[in-house]
Design a protein that fits this description.
Number of helices: 1
Strand order of the largest sheet: 1-2
Strand content: 25-35%
Radius of gyration: 15 Å
Structural class: mainly beta
Helix content: under 10%
Order of helices and strands: EEEHE
Length: 74
């Protein structure tokens, strides 16, 4: 896989959009996984189990191009 920015060999994949990124162009961004108690539609549909916590990765690989919006879920 090649870097989206420069065509060098990718060392990581953007956790948000899936673009390949090399070490030079990789940026870090907070990434949360999990749904809290506020997301009632998904919880009542049976897709996810209720949780009061979510996993947070403070330095997840990010391409720097995709627009990431945080949403409150607890």
């Amino acid at each position: 896989m090649k870097c989206w920015h420069c065509d060098n060999e990718a060392k990581a994949v953007c956790v948000f959009c899936g673009r390949g990124i090399c070490a030079k162009h990789r940026k870090g961004k907070r990434h949360f996984a999990g749904y809290g108690m506020k997301n009632k539609q998904l919880l009542t549909a049976g897709f996810f189990d209720a949780s009061r916590t979510a996993t947070c990765v403070n330095d997840a690989s990010w391409c720097g191009l995709c627009h990431v919006e945080e949403a409150e879920t607890y």
